Amino acid sequence: MKLELRGITKRFGPLVANDRIDLVVEPGQIHALLGENGAGKSTLMNVLFGLYEPDSGQILIDDKPAKIKGPADALEAGIGMVHQHFMLVPVFTVAESVMLGHESTRGAGLLDLDAARRQVRELSARFGFDVEPDAVIEDLPVGVQQRVEIIKAMARDAKVLILDEPTAVLTPQETDELIEIMRQLRAAGTSIVFITHKLREVKAVADVITVIRRGRVVGQADPGAPESELAAMMVGRSVMLQVDKAPAQPGEVALFVRDLVVTDRTGARVVDHVSFDLARGEILAIAGVQGNGQSELAEAILALVPATGSMVLEGRELVGSSVREVLDHGVGFVPEDRSHDGLVGEFTVAENLVLDLFADARFRGGLGMDLAAIKSNAEARIAEFDIRTRGPEQPAERLSGGNQQKVVVAREMSRPLRLFVASQPTRGVDVGSIEFLHRRIVAERDNGTPVLIVSTELDEVSALADRVAVMFRGRIVGIVPGDTPRDVLGLMMAGVPYEEAQRHAAEHPTTETLIEQDPSAAAAAGPEEGEVP
Amino acid sequence: MTDELVPDRAAAPPAAPPEPSSEQRASSWLRRVSSGEVLTTVLAFVLALVIGGILIAAVDKKVTAAAGYFFARPGDLLGAAWHSVSGAYAALFRGAVLDYQATTVLKAIRPLTETITTSTPLIIASLAVAVAFRAGLFNIGAQGQVIMGAVVSGYVGFTFHLPPVVAVLVALVVGVLAGAVWGGIAGVLKARTGAHEVIVTIMLNYVASFLLAWLLTTSAFRVHGSQEPKSQTVLTNAQLPLLFGSQYRATWGFVLALVAAAFVWWLMSRSRLGFQFRAVGANPYASRTAGISVARMTAYVMLASGALAGLAGAVQLLGTSKYLTDGIAGTIGFDAITVALLGRSKPGGIVAAGLLYGGLSAGGRFMEVVTGTPIDIVLVLQALVVLFIAAPGLVRTIFRLPAPSADVEGALA
Q1: Which of A84, A302, A346 is the closest to B9 by Cβ?
Q2: Which fold has domain A3-235?
Q3: Which one-letter DSSP state was computed for residue B226?
Q4: Is B289 in Cβ contact with A335 (below 8 Å)?
Q5: Is the ipTM reported for this complex over the cut 0.95?
Q6: What domain range includes position B129?
């Protein structure tokens, strides 16, 4: 099936999210849609999937105009979509999930689960999904849940499959498996629209790359083009993909963490006897796949979750303190989810910039607050961090992700720090802001502050870390130098100890290392990784 | 709305974000409604007046009679309807603001002072509800807190012989404290154990109202030798002084209401405590991460809210009622929720909304007497205003207003 978007325009008030976008997806092609967050990729796909109605433009299927008024029409037309956040019911089985929305029944209105089971088995066998029809969704790992989403789409005979940022939640190894699945689907004649902002993946799998910037198509690129060229197209100017940083000059150890244990509500140990040291003037990155205890480790430092063990920062025990005490002791904290934990959305930029500083002598005025000082502070921070806002009085929720993050980082860096902790400091942030934030973090390190970064993005870990602590199931698998190859880190993230990971990585290079040498060789690497059944 | 259908994937973290709990959703709805646009509020009132007019016409006997021969003389129906509706609304105005048919100027402005009298406790109690709203808490218990404020200030007011000024101040302060305790119970329970403030405050309303009923049977409260369920009268020294002289019922309580409004404005937009209240209300998670103790703020908010409601009760008793009865609080505590919504939880808006509400009540009584239109119409008007304000989308659709830009940007932000 050939899919064509012609002159799609979608406005939200004054904002033009999609500006006369043309896109042709040929049958059996992997078409990458590359663009920064907020460039309009997801809006475009939501138009295609019928969730938004375009203001103008046409969708053509096999050169015939198609009316897509909602997801039902899209599915009918053979367009399937795998959302970034899976649309699955946790307590359903795989088969139930697949039949949800087009339940087939046998006489007397009974659900025909057997048919759904057969369908799952059949698709699973055809594409090597390895999904058990009676498994319950909530018991499945994220990578397998994603396959269930793909099966759902394929079960409805999707000819075009839209994958919205599919690799965001996957380990490098799971990403390889997904890439292999995408190749198989392509071989079977399914077209894939692959939305991403990750350059490596695009280069590994795409046949055609369309780059979108600020709602417009800025051009097509060849998968063989160098990453720096793709990044420049995406951002509109040349960007530094590597952070310029001098070798660390670690001073004395400032933070001693010993046998830290965090137990969650169900009684499971999410952080399991973690110990490490952190010196002044060094960046320690905690790497790991989402959900292996790194987030809880960061939260435990700020006393957001109760912990046992010991954490001594410059002579003071932090375990058992309150959040206020930890902040007052000079810990700067950038939470993982800025809109949830970092900002009060309806508060102004100025108010958010003093969210944990409002009681500071600088901003006090009698019993009240010194609004003038708060405003001038905001103006200074906005200038210093290049926060793009209409002014200090704009509500923070109106800022783009990158600017919101700058507000949080600016606030946390606007007081003397004994320790800087940042969880996913650049998640959902545009490339331009990533560059800026990384430079600020390195500058903070060079000021002599110990820096702890929690990140699931290997790019970020490699860019920033002087040392990397890899976490798996609540434990630190190993603490390794910052320049450890991605393959080795990837294996460690799956729980493989350092030495073994090194050996294994040498024997079985993954797509990611291969594409740097030869893109065509990447195809061969896929199946080798199919160790996880 | 589109932003609920399609969560923005670009800015959201890759891990599935936790679904907002129903409580969170309710409080965000609460804040959205309570901070709606002025225009929608005004239009909601206009709509309510229109529908109220239809109802007034429908229950009018002359209109019903004219409708019987509508096809013979349609003009009669329209004439009768116009006469009935305009007469009723004119009476409403005369009863609430200015009786332009009165013989003297002093009598002409009497309705305005009645409106002030009716709205005084309402304004204060609405401020109480609004402080909680802004902090993300639903204080349904203003009624109970008003009762407790009235009971305690009344008891002190009729029991202790104190010098002038001191007597009234002491009576007011104990009323405030009683309200604070009653609200604080819900706050502390929520902070300590997570008990939902809506449930707890509703239950405390019952406790307060039955406590009052029981107290009125005791000798400490009841007039000696009387069987009536009514308390002794507050001593003169403890009564709030009249504001415009003995011709009118309005007291200095109204000035207290305005001072309370100014204080709440300062508290919520200028003080450090209010900053924390608002932060906790808007995003408890970010507040916690910023070192604000959400539990402590919850307790403080309910203390502050209860204190204001207690003041409302004290003012009602020491100013207007002067002795306790079962119905001392009327429906002040519940109307306060409406007024706080109507005033968009802003002190200025609440003063305006409180006066409007008080005017509708005062005018409604007058209207019933003059035109025979049932006062229930006023209740319908009040209910309709609230209904339309709670459904801004409906008002926007009826008047073909564009959606506020906040929603649209929210879809992308």
Answers
A1: A84
A2: Rossmann fold (3.40.50)
A3: -
A4: yes
A5: no
A6: 125-355
